[in-house]
Design goal:
The complex is a heterodimer of chains A (133) and B (197).
Chain A: H1 2-22, H2 25-31, H3 34-74, H4 78-83, H5 87-101, H6 108-111, H7 115-132
Helix pairs in contact in A: 3-7, 5-7
Chain B: H1 7-14, H2 19-42, H3 53-69, H4 80-92, H5 94-97, H6 102-107, H7 114-118, H8 129-146, H9 150-160, H10 165-171, H11 176-180, H12 183-196
The chains are: A mainly alpha (133), B mainly alpha (197).
């Protein structure tokens, strides 16, 4: 009888798990008590907070990496960097290059919002890595 | 704060999930954990310590933390509720509780249909006789409750035989969706026996 009773209850819980999985979300929400709603709200707030923390950390790491790349590239000297670009690219990217040349510490935040400049930095880094290999 | 290998990918997927969808998912997962832990408790005397609101809150937090941090890969063909349930299943199972590395976590992902996981047999670590008596009284209490309700009696016999949602719906000549409407009736049946037990 022992194993049988356990198996029957186990079957019941399995079926309820399956029905819960297939239940309509809106119907499930309508069945909730106030205490359950409060508990769900608490978890929702926690997961939003966690998402925000991860995004902030990801932005910080992205920023630091970009600044590191800029510093590494600038230390090579602008003329050396220009050599990494093909003649066609040089012409196209010259206005951006001037911007890159004039980057100061105060510009760091605005750099990260300038997608064109970031693309140039990425391209220069790739070429610099290639020429090093 | 560390990022898992799927952080960027998961963030793109998570961005499209609405507040309403998240809340429905959390509600489903809370019920899932409660049932999963009750099922596990049947087969091990020590598993009783896993029960309670704190354990449920712990497992649900682990599930969204693993997905948001990118340590669990958000699969294209699964909705957020299924992703969360898979993480929860892995963390409740003892096998994964002892795995610490990202590599081990990735290796432990199972892609069997989720329905099969609901019916997965637990390893019996041997519950004591006192619990056996309790289970028997729970079953008796259910059987007393459903007396005179022919529909519930048919369902109960099918549950005893281990039939699934689809099979029971077929037996009642209903679609699975129509059978789902009886979920509340079934939950009331379980709640009554819990009070008695």
């Amino acid at each position: 009888m022992g194993n049988n009773t356990k198996q029957i209850l186990s079957n019941l819980y399995s079926l309820l798990m399956e029905m819960n999985f297939h239940s309509e979300g809106s119907e499930l929400m309508a069945e909730l008590s106030d205490a359950e709603k409060t508990r769900i709200d608490k978890h929702y707030k926690q997961l939003r907070l966690l998402t925000t923390k991860y995004k902030a950390e990801a932005n910080k790491q992205y920023f630091n990496k970009a600044i590191e790349q800029i510093q590494a590239l600038k230390s090579k000297g602008i003329e050396e960097l220009k050599k990494l670009l093909k003649p066609g690219e040089q012409q196209e990217l010259i206005p951006l290059f001037r911007k890159f040349e004039n980057i100061t510490e105060d510009d760091k935040v605005s750099i990260l919002e300038d997608t064109e400049l970031l693309s140039l930095i990425e391209l220069l880094k790739e070429r610099a890595d290639e020429s090093n290999n | 704060m560390e990022f898992g290998p799927y952080y960027q990918r998961n963030q793109r997927k998570l961005a499209s999930i609405s507040e309403a969808k998240w809340k429905e998912t959390i509600a489903k997962c809370i019920r899932f954990i409660e049932l999963k832990l009750k099922k596990k408790t049947l087969y091990g005397a020590h598993a009783g310590s896993l029960l309670g609101a704190e354990a449920v809150d712990h497992y649900i937090s682990v599930a969204y933390e693993r997905i948001i941090s990118g340590y669990w890969e958000f699969q294209d063909d699964m909705d957020i509720a299924e992703q969360m349930m898979r993480v929860i299943t892995s963390y409740i199972s003892k096998a994964i509780e002892h795995t610490k590395t990202v590599k081990a976590t990735v290796l432990n992902i199972k892609y069997t249909p989720i329905e099969e996981e609901f019916y997965e047999k637990e390893i019996d670590s041997g519950a004591d006789d006192l619990l056996e008596d309790r289970y028997a009284s729970m079953i008796k209490s259910i059987e007393d409750t459903i007396k005179d309700d022919i529909e519930l009696e048919i369902i109960w016999e099918a549950i005893k035989e281990g039939k699934t949602r689809y099979e029971i719906a077929e037996l009642l000549d209903k679609t699975p969706r129509q059978f789902d409407k009886l979920r509340e009736k079934l939950i009331r049946m379980v709640q009554k026996q819990q009070l008695a037990g």
